[in-house]
Each structure stands twice: as structure tokens, then as C-alpha cells.
Fold these 2 entries.
Entry 1:
Amino acid sequence: MLILGIDTSCDETSVSVIDGKNNILSSIVSSQIDLHKRFGGVVPEIASRKHVEIIDSIFHEAIDKANISKENIDAIAVTYGPGLIGSVLVGLCFAKGLSLSLNKPLIGINHVEAHAMSIFLEKDIEFPFISLIISGGHTCILLMEKPCNYRVIGSTRDDAAGEALDKIAKFLGLGYPGGPIIEKLSQKGNADYVLFPRPMADEDNLDFSFSGLKTAFINWAKRHKISDGNIHHVLASFQEAIFDSLFGKLMKASKRYNINRIVVAGGVASNSMLRTFFNEKAKANNIELFFPSPINCTDNAAMIAVTGYFYYKNGFLSPIDLKGFSRMVIKATP
């Protein structure tokens, strides 16, 4: 079964072909970081224009690398949200054109759900499981009840975790994207240097808030001098406050639903220090923890394709007039 995956949700143009569930024949990802770094973040209009320019060539590169004919594709899976709507529509319209020209079924995929399902590119795990999605645009907890069936049980009420990291890096003039820069600097730091707050830690819900933590950092920086001598420690403290907030809510979710299988995915999940922190905490709390490989944590079309595989197997197809959307409808379970 050959599934074509397409993802243009933000600033990566990606096309992938998988054979069955986890045989990746090709996974092409074209990043736009160099285009956006001068602005300190993604510029939506630039992102969508770049997708338009290169998506056809990325598609043909993926087909060639997979060593198949486009006529051999069984189904086309594509992100239809959430994301930058201009970017989303580029991939969605391209997928619709392929669907019509090749007479192949179309499968609209939720980008956040695909992050949770990316683990199946590498290993099978049992349902149900809990998934934490952490990226620059999303921070939420999903209850994955069975294939193609999930619920949002917790989400951020303001900034996403990756967004908070990017904004602090921008505040300090460190560059973009901020997460990897902060990770590198934090490796030399003492995370006990500053005790930053863990927002909403005492509340009996599964939601997050990182705007206040970001403000706490800025206020601390205004009262104290951040220099080459302490920046590693301050950033390590800030980063660990984010990690601790995330894992604390995961523990609450695990206990509330009596599920100890947890998948952590999304771009921030590629952070090696987060993986170490989470693995140590999981071991101490008898949690079975899974991470996709770092390359499958960041935005990619292979995760769209593997999610499409499950939808195709279960007969869930999309109409050709499928509409794109920019934001998930979040109704967190208290």
C-alpha cells in the first residue's frame, strides 16, 4: 500500500512516500529557516509563496527517490490544518489536483494528530496511549483512544512551549529558531540557578500556560544582569521550568486516565535535554515513554502519510471540497 503524504503547515515543504505502515521510501523536507531568520520568526506570506514555488519539484523528488510512478500511489494524505492558512492551502490544493488527475482518494489529516502518530513510523505501540505534542505552534495533550479516534484533554491557554523559547531567544538577541540555541547554551548551565515558576502546576486541570513564565524571565532579566558568565545558568533554569511544567501535567493525565504509555512528539521533543529530563522522571514514576527519532519529531510528510495509512485502512476518506483550517478547535477536558 503506497501512501503519499504532503505537509505545508508552516515553513517546511515536505512530501513523503511510505509503503505500508513504516517503510519510508522517501521523505523530502525543504526548510525555509534561512528565509525567515532575518525576521526573527516565520513570515506567513513569504512561507506560502515559497511553498508555491517548490512544491511541484519536491513532489517529483519524493516520487523519484521512492522509485515509483505517481500512478502507483494508492492514496494521498495531506495536512488540512492547523497551521498558517496560506501555507496549508498550498499543500491542500496541490493534493486535490493530484487526487483529481490520478483518480486517487484524498485523506485530510490533522497535523497535530499526525505528530502523535509519528511513533508508528518506527514502532508499534498499544492503544490507548497519551500523547504530548510540543512545538513552536502547539502544546497539547491528546488521549489516543484507538486509530483515527482521539480527544484533546489539555492544551496551552496562551503561548506554546516552543513559542516561549523562541520569544526569549529573540528578547536576548540570540537568533532564530530559539529552541535549539537555548538548548545548546543550557548544556553548560545549572538549572537550579533561578527558580522560575511552574504556571498552573497546582491547578486540577491538564492545561498549560507559558506566557507568565516568559514574563517572569523578562522581569528577572530586567532586575539582574545577564552576561556571558550566567546566561547558561539562567537559560537552563528557564528551559527546565518548561520541562517540569510539561511533565507535571503528563503525570496528572496518566493518573487520571490510568494509562502509563506516553508518546512525546513535536519539534521541541527533539531537544536532547528534554528527552533526558523526561526519561529520568518517567523511570521514577513507572511511565512507559516513547519518543520518535528527532528527524520524525519536526514537521515532515512521513507522519502525515502514516496517519493517512490508518485512515485509509479504516475507510475514512475526505471529500474533494475539503476545507483547510488554521486553528484546532480546542475543548480541553477538565
Note: The longest strand covers residues 23-31.
Entry 2:
Amino acid sequence: MDLGIAGKWALVCGASKGLGLGCAQALVQEGVNVLIVARGAEHLAASAAKLIADYEHSTRASVLFCAQDITTQAGRAAVFAVRSSFDIVVTNAGGPPPGDFREWDREAWIKAVDANMLTPIELIKATVDGMAQRGFGRIVNITSSSVKAPIDALGLSNGARSGLTGFVAGVARSGLAAKGVTINNLLPGVFDTDRIKTMLATNAQKTGQSVEALADARRQNIPAKRFGTPQEFGAICAFLCSQQAGYINGQNVLADGGAYPGTH
């Protein structure tokens, strides 16, 4: 299927690896020009080089990269100095650490809200009016399945991402869709990324169980009996950015292999 977005420009955050890189890869495959952003300059440069080597000649898509912390005002200013106009924005920032809510002080909460609620809002604010003027725009916020089924140990993420979810529910229905701009949230369950590997390693140290035993137990709780891949996550993101997805707006799209047991 031709998604009809070749030649568009996309800003993809947290794109040096994992789900963000999966999204960037899927968009470049469709001929979308991308500016990828992450904090780690070495990993980011390597990922940009691989995208260029794999796809630039076949799709004629341009790949730019900017090593900045998108959760800071200075980082966002540096990114928009590279390019200020985008047709597609994929917001993504690493989730806050797990823990006991009794141990989180105000600084921990502010940091979580800054990264996982206020940063996406700032990126939306900076780009959405230009999208509306041009008659096309797609914003996809990578959040978490915990928005639908909160996880006790991830209270910082539950709170910050739920705030973003509420904001998007309102702004996506504010008249932007009539101008060709959609805003959706993409909710990953358990994917084979560095984050899940780190969490499994931490739990292994606490429990004395092996990482593989813990991973297998997680897989058994997923109807698909496996973890997702960044590539299939990216494909979902690319479709939400497509011309064909213009009637999907203000939604929380869950990609979790069927783990969520509810009906809505």
C-alpha cells in the first residue's frame, strides 16, 4: 500500500534506537524525509548513517539528525533551528523510572511531567498551526499501555502520560481535523527494546531469578506469546501518519499483543 506521504517531512524523537528508530525506519521506507532526535550523539549518528545506507538511494528520502535533549527548552530550540516546519511529528521520550510513590519527591514528579506530558504539548504547539495552514498534519505521541491499565510501580509514567492523554483528547477535537491534522496516541505494550531488557535485569537482581525466566513469564501473559518488535510498531506509526488514516483522530491505539483484557 502506498501511504501517500512520500516527500513529507517528519520529526521523530527518541529515534536513536528502539521504538523511535522503528518509527523513523518505517517512515523513511515510505519516502518521508526525517529529522531524528535523541540525546546520545554516537548512537544517533550511527542510526542515521544506517537509515541513509539502507533507504536513501531507493526512496530518495533525506535523513537529518540532531543530538539534543528534546525535553528541554534549549534542546527544542536547537532542533527547530535545524528545521522549523514538519508535516509529521512523532513525540517520544524515555519513561520515568519505576518505584514506590512514597519515595518520589516534587522534583521527580516535575521531571516526569516535563518529559512525558509538557514536552509533547510543546512540540504540538510549535508545529500544529503550520500543519493546519498547509492542510495536512499527523502527530503521533508514543505513550504507554499503562495509560489504559496502570502499573503500580510506574506511577510517575501513569500520571504524566495520563495527563497527555487528557490533553490530546481535547485538542484533537478542537477543529484541527477539519484542516487535515490528526493527533493520536500510540500505546506500546511489551516490546523487545533496551527498556524491557533493563527492567528484566533489575527484577532479576531483586528476585534472584534469571532474566530469561522472567522474560518467559512475561511472554506467557501475552496472548501473542512474544514481545513486539520495533519494526512492527513503526509500521503502525507509519499508517497513522498516512493519507489513509485521515479519519483516525484523538484515539489511543494499543499495540500489546492482546495483553489488555478490556473492551475499550
Note: The two ends are 28 Å apart (CA to CA).
